[in-house]
Amino acid sequence: MFPQRQGASAAEAALLDEARITPWTVRRSWDFITVSRTEHNPSRREVCTNSGANTLSVALSPVERAEWRFENGATRRTRILPNTTSIRGARDVVWGRWDQTCKCIHIGLSPALLADVARQVGAPPPMLRPSEGLHDKTILDAALLLSGEIDNWGLGGDLLVQSVANILAVHVLRNYADVIPRSFDSEPPGLDRGLDRGLDRGLDRARLKRVLDFIETNLGAPLSLDVLASVAAVSPYHFARRFKLSMGCSPHQWVIRRRIDRTKTLLRDTRLPIADVARQVGMANHSHFTTRFRRVVGCSPKVFRRQS
Predict the structure, then answer these.
(1) Rounded to whole angstroms, how far apart are CA atoms 137 and 145?
(2) Within this chain, do residues 86 and 26 fall inside the same structural domain, yes or no?
(3) What's the pLDDT band for 105 if we cut at 50, 70, 90?
(4) In this structure, is residue 106 part of a structural domain?
(5) Do 66 and 158 fall into the same domain?
(6) 3-state DSSP call for residue 133?
(7) Do both 28 and 172 map to the same domain?
(8) Is the alpha carbon torsion for 244, 215, 186, 90 positive or negative?
(9) How many domains does the chain have?
(10) What is the pLDDT of residues 234-251, one digit of tens each?
(11) Quick one: residue 167, left, alpha or beta (phi over 0 = left, psi -120 to 50 = alpha)?
């Protein structure tokens, strides 16, 4: 077992335990974000860690001795503690070596994502400050959640990842950017000008109805945050915030809820094969569909149909 973060809740500890036993050295990419789970073996030779993305690296196991140096810079020696984060900007070229195996979750945020979120909140293109040994609960929780999505091709997965990517982008801009945005509460230019001013209000009735109708009509299609935001004619950053104020849940949670409800209706009122039901609610992978349905409803689709 790896050391547990001090003060971690039982739920957080369970997530950490799950991450530790999951198969390692896997990678998955979405629009503007890449997540990899990597087991780094000890390295006597320096290894370049530049990936071309703004990288948040969460260490899940300790390293007693690690050495890092930026290109043409002095070598820094440090101890890596479990559940801590290091941050590297997209332009940072860093060389490193370490004396023992370390399991990490790496999140790569593309420069385009950070620039787009900065533009939406009225800030100039950002540059991240390189940082080490951060005890950042937001990044740790996001890393564990995204690590799970590497393996789960579940309901609303793309929407979930896009939502988390936007949350991380705003978080690092607020806390680890060299250029501080002028205001995270100011209304951005462009699509949002027709909205009521202030982030404390939800979507107006017409926009909300348009989005909800679109979701109902397209439950079997990919429903990304960008797509839903474009239906509302709102930037993704503001859409996620205002949708939650209107509906009491995130767009991802709403889509999952409606897909599960549609699944129940199809199982109860039709004799469609379960595989066809899964496809009609946007789940081509039958096993992942069954796992997600059981997690939400408490039984498998087959049992639900038999009991209905």
Answers:
(1) 12
(2) yes
(3) very high
(4) yes
(5) yes
(6) strand
(7) yes
(8) positive
(9) 3
(10) 888 788 888 988 888 889
(11) alpha
Residue 234's φ and ψ, nearest 5 degrees, are -135, 150
Q: Which residues contact 182 (CB under 8 A, 6 or more apart)?
A: 122, 123
pLDDT tens figures, 262-278: 999 999 988 889 988 98
Range of the domain at 272: 254-307
Single-letter amino acid, residue 103:
K
CB 169 within 8 A of CB 32: no
3 within some domain? no
Q: Do 242 and 276 fall into the same domain?
A: no
Task: Give the tokens for residue 148.
Answer: 């799970």
- 208, 228, 248: which is the final residue of a domain? 248
Q: Is residue 200 part of a domain?
A: yes
**CA–CA gap between residue 162 and residue 298 (Å, rounded):** 27
Q: Rounded to an integer, what distance in angstroms lies between the CA atom of residue 34 and that of residue 207?
A: 31
Q: Which of 152, 176, 200 is the last residue of a domain?
A: 176
54 plus 109 within the same structural domain: yes
Torsion angle in degrees (nearest 10) through CA of 120, 126, 132, 135: -20
Task: Characterize 68-99 residue by residue with b for buried, 16 or more Cβ atoms within 10 angstroms of its Cβ, and e for exposed.
Answer: bbeeeeeeeeeebebbbbbbbbbebebbbbbe
Q: What whole-number distance in Å separates Cα of residue 202 and Cα of residue 68? A: 46
Return the minimum-mean-pLDDT range out of 50-59, 138-147, 296-305: 50-59
Burial class (CB in 10 A: 0-12, 13-18, 19+), 106: buried
Listing DSSP states for 43-82 in one string gives EEEEEE---SSEEEEEESS-EEEEEEEETTS-EEEEEEPT
Is 2:82 a contact under the CB 8 Å cutoff?
yes
Q: Are residues 27 and 165 in the same domain?
A: yes
Q: How far apart are the C-alpha atoms of 61 and 261, rounded to whole Å?
A: 40
* Tokens 């900065």 -> residue: 118
Give the predicted TM-score (pTM) of the model. Answer: 0.60
**Residue 219: how many CA atoms within 13 Å on its side-chain side?**
20
